[in-house]
Amino acid sequence: MLALQLLFNAIALGAAYALVALGFVLILNATSAVNFAQGDLVMVGGFGALAFGSLLGLPGIVLLVPLLVVMIGIGFLLAFVAYFPVRKRPPDTVFITTIAAGIIMSNGANAIFGPEPRATPSLVSSGDWQIGGLVVSYQSAAVIIVAAALIVGLHLLFTRTQIGRRLRATAQDRDVAASIGIPVNLMVAATFAVGAALAGAAGLLLSRNFFVSPTDGANYMLKAYIAVTLGGWGSIPGAVIGALIIAAFEVAFPALPALIPALAPYAEAFTQVWSTVVLYVLILLILWQRPQGLFGEAVRARP
Amino acid sequence: MRKALFLSLAFAMPSLLPLSGPALAADPSIPVLVPITGFLAVEGKSQRNGAVLALTQAPGGLKVRHDVSDTGTSPEVAVNAFERAIDDRNTVAVVAPMLGTQMLALLPVALQAKMPMLTMSGTAAITQQGNPYVFRFFPDDHVTKTAQVRFAVEERKIAKPALIYQTTAYGQSGREEILKLLKARNITPVYQDALDVSQKDMTAVLAKAQAAGADSLLVHLHGGPTALLLKAASTMGLKLPIIAGSGLSQPSTLALLEPAELATSCAETGSSPISAETPEMQKFVADYRKAFDQDPDAFALGQYDGTMMALQALAGGANTPDKMTKALASTTYKGLAMTYKSNGKGDMAHSAVVICFDGKSRVPTIAKHYDVN
User: Which has the closest alpha carbon to B142: B233, B270, B39, B238?
Assistant: First the structure.
């Protein structure tokens, strides 16, 4: 039953991480630049949910709608402040501008909400189902369902709608997209908006169980970066799988001695610290063998 | 409060009297240098609030300037802020950041400038370097961990604890002290694990502690991770007694937990102002809430006491950094949380308490006081 519990917890955590990584990879594909503010957008989403919860007194699932609207606005703003003014400069410049934007968000949240960790309203209600020894909290179940719905919605947006096709075309080749009349700049700004909305949704989903504080951004950013690197730089399914792998390591690997009695004498090798070491060694091994990541396409220069 | 101030003055005056004489600086200044952004912002904000409250309640009608500077998380920023602060010739002491790495960087600068620093930093090394200008008003790890371990062993009768600590310097330092104290009682933890501050899911660590046969959890984590651990333990239905570090005593941590999730928990801390044991403490809590719209924690109270001790000395004539240093080094001061006296190294606080929760309220009761030499 412990194994099932850990699996459930890992999926709930990984589902939220996947939203962060998806937003990250969408912006990466559209701009060929890394948005280092992605983790801070998660934090902003958490505090946004907290603010809406205090104002409206409604459950998180209802707050998701106004939160997504606000995050879309923040995404547009981020594009116009941190990307467009420097888009013709070397990609490093975008790194710096998005880092600066993230620091502004972090310190802004500190000034407005204070440094204390906070918990956001639950998505539906508090409580849980007890199934045998398995504890399925309403919150974690709702996190999985909402994250899955958002990922499916995103998939439909990209594959079944005109704007989705335009977004994909822009991400694949901006010059060709522009030559056939697609408003490339608007599509790039829209991608920032979608990326920010996904990060904001992740913030709402994560902040009930795991709280939110102004300094959380860096940790989420690191996880998104690693998920995307592991899954395949630029691969959307890869970002989701990468996020789930990270969550699985975080949740399940340290519990192996409790799951497999034969490993109990070696419990010292399965601490949280060692699980992080093993995760990063695994990433190195994968990247040595597949530099393009698990789902990335190998790219070679034409001779 | 007035009674407390009177008593404090009466207690402190004999040793302050020799210092009185010269006229007070016309415009004395005690700058407040604290980390109010970055990972230590919660504690830094408490430190700032405690200092500022004391400075606005200075005894004897004293008016003391107190510019507040954010030291963030880097030593360079702290050193720059300190150098700016001591540039002012009216500065008689500095409220120095509680971040250990910043304090270590400030020690040589303070030594050169001969400027006393009032701090809440728990890093053991800062008072072990023979620097006469550092005064720590929060009990160090030896004091707080002694309270934690003694309570666990003597009151909760634990014999097979699991020790869960943070990977940070704070966590490592606390762990070493706990292990030393357990060893002295012939107790070895049946399980130990170090958690990164970004760790979200605590199921695995609790499952392993349970599988190892632990009869209790000794926890030394920051506030947020402590709340995550207690939530996970509650969800898993774990009934083991939890004796936590001071992270659990912070009101911001308690706000993250339901009273029922605190039911089996106790925690060490320097003091517990929200338990409001005395009328003076009740007044402090009321003043603090009025000024900052939140509850005070042990850091706020410790810094309040420390700053008030410096203000008492200033009122008694310690109007230069040199006189202030001598006063702080030689005076006994009865503060709200405890009686403060330097051990010759600058450690001023030698008491701690263990607080416990009844599962019905977030307000703890003080289960035990410990004075540690």
Answer: B270
